[in-house]
Amino acid sequence: MTAKLVITGASKAFPGVQALDDVSLTLEAGSIHALLGENGAGKSTLIKIITGVHRPDSGTVLLDGEPMQFFGPHDALAHGISAVHQERNLIPRFSVAENIMLERLPTRAGLVDYGEVREAARRFMAPLGLEIDPDIPVRNLSVARMQLVEIAKALSLDARLLVLDEPTASITPHETETLFRLLRELRDKGVAILFVSHKLDEVFELCDSVTVLRDGRNACASRSLNGLDRSDVVRLMIGRDETAVRRTERTATGEPVLALRDVATDLGHRNIDLEVRAGEIVGLYGLVGAGRTELAKAVIGAAKVTSGEVQVGGRSARIDSVATALSRYRIGYVSEDRKHEGLILMHSVRRNVAVTVWRRIARALGWLPDRAERDAVTPYIERLQVRTPSLAQPVSLLSGGNQQKVSVAKWLAAQVRVLIVDEPTVGIDIQTKVYLHELIHELAASGTAILLISSDMPEMISLADRIVVMADFEVVGELDNTRDAADMSEAIMARIHKVAEVA
Which residues form the ABC transporter domain (predicted)? Predict the structure, then answer.
């Protein structure tokens, strides 16, 4: 059974914010429709109206010509609408299989049939190439695999209208190719698919039509992608042409600020050698499961180094916690998982940024004057152009791009000498992505040593001075970056595939 969705004149306001203003969208059965816009443009609010999380203040929602008022996500689900949200909606302590089949657990004699739960989960994991034990708790998975579990869960619901919000943000190009094949198959069966992505190459590869939002209004409503190119879409999204990153060529000299010498960890790393000098951007590239994020966590004391040596400033460093990494060695870490590790969502913008400088600004007996926090935080909020009504705004109410800026701002305030940046632009808009790329270049130019982890090959080639390639928790190669995208991509993947062939 197919579905056609028509939204006309939808508006939605929150205290101090007009999130949507007279927005329209038509999603045809058997089509893949892109929903585009900068962070804060209103995409998430529109998705939440479609999936029953919010009800519009005005406007109409028609499903197959019938007016709809959804009273919650389960109501939308009952009408065949399923979603993969950018903020993962999984239960960490439940198994992979339980999360995938949660909405319709098979039973036998009134009890959950866990054998069937596992088998059913495997059926929905298989098309995605997700070969993991279905009994593993979700909390033990990488961010990328959590994303694939979320997609498998949505596929299990046999939705006739599927909403995908940044589904490829954390997965590899190979996994993306597999997902796109599945989406085309669903489209050909008549499923209506709403696809949200900041990766315009994906949009043009996959989608038939597009709706663009800007500042909560339609910049264009439900038009064919035929006849549009990247520059047209960017102009609709941001109101002007895209600006290229201004790259500053640097030559890093001197002793390494951060060095790993024959490091092994309790997570499985072996024989890791790596150096980052002041003013240098060193990239860590590898496929999902290569051990890049895990290595970063070992450097900052969130995992144990079992042998070898970590050196900071040429001296042996004993880092047993994130607090030690910051206070004693001035190492900061921008987490790939900003919502669970990088930020405290219920706290204000001011508190999230100031947390790294509390020790520096505290008065007697640990007293933290509000003014001292504001004075410490404001320059960095202004520098990163964080869009927030006030410093008191809870971070949870900011857009994804502005949350990422807050996550970066706290480390700028701390004035770290080494900054590890893990997937800096996942799920953020083009303008913010360009801005963060420029900021990373500026930080390096000012002498900060930067270790960059990214699964976005063009981003890696654009930013890094040297690229260290990892596979199976080992370093398998190191390359000086020539900036030639084709040559660098081929050289990087050759090192990864060579390891796979040996294995």
Answer: 5-240, 245-497
71-98 burial code (b ≥16 CB/10 A, e <16): eebeebbebbbbbbbbebebeeeebbbb
Q: Domain-by-domain residue ranges, the chain? A: 5-238, 256-330+417-502, 345-415
d(CA 264, CA 307): 5
Q: What angle do CA 459, 470, 331 make, to 5 degrees?
A: 70
DSSP-assigned letters across all residues of 102-139: GGG--EETTEE-HHHHHHHHHHHHGGGT--S-TTSBGG
Cβ 389 vs Cβ 396: under 8 Å:
no
Distance, C-alpha 367 to centroid of its chain: 35
Whole-structure pTM value? 0.63
Distance, CA of 286 to CA of 279 (rounded, Å) = 23
Q: Residues with Cβ < 8 Å from 455, sequence gap 6 or more?
A: 144, 170, 171, 172, 285, 287, 288, 423
Sheet holding 466-471, edge to edge: 331-334, 418-422, 449-453, 281-285, 466-471, 474-480
**Alpha helices by DSSP H, 5-157:** 43-50, 73-78, 96-101, 114-125, 143-156
Residue 490: other Cβ atoms inside 10 A:
10
Q: DSSP label at 333? A: E
The residue type of 9 is G
Q: Do 158 and 181 touch, CB atoms closer than 8 A?
A: no
Residue ranges of alpha helices (H) inside 157-282 are 173-188, 200-206, 230-238
Q: What is the mean pLDDT of each run of 10 residues along the chain (503 residues)?
A: 85 86 94 88 91 93 90 89 81 90 83 88 87 90 83 85 86 82 89 90 93 92 90 82 54 84 95 95 89 94 95 94 92 86 88 85 68 87 88 88 88 92 81 84 92 89 94 93 87 78 50
- Long-range pairs, 251-257, Cβ under 8 A, ≥24: 252/277, 252/278, 252/279, 252/280, 252/465, 253/277, 254/278, 255/313, 255/314, 256/311, 256/314, 256/449, 257/312, 257/313, 257/417, 257/418, 257/449
End-to-end CA distance of the chain: 46
According to CATH, the topology of domain 256-330+417-502 is Rossmann fold (3.40.50)
CA dihedral (403, 405, 407, 413) in degrees, to 10, reads -140
Of 101, 453, 33, the residue nearest 283 (C-alpha): 453
Q: Do 437 and 282 contact (CB within 8 A), yes or no?
A: no
Asked, colleague to colleague, whether 5-238 and 256-330+417-502 share their fold, the answer is yes
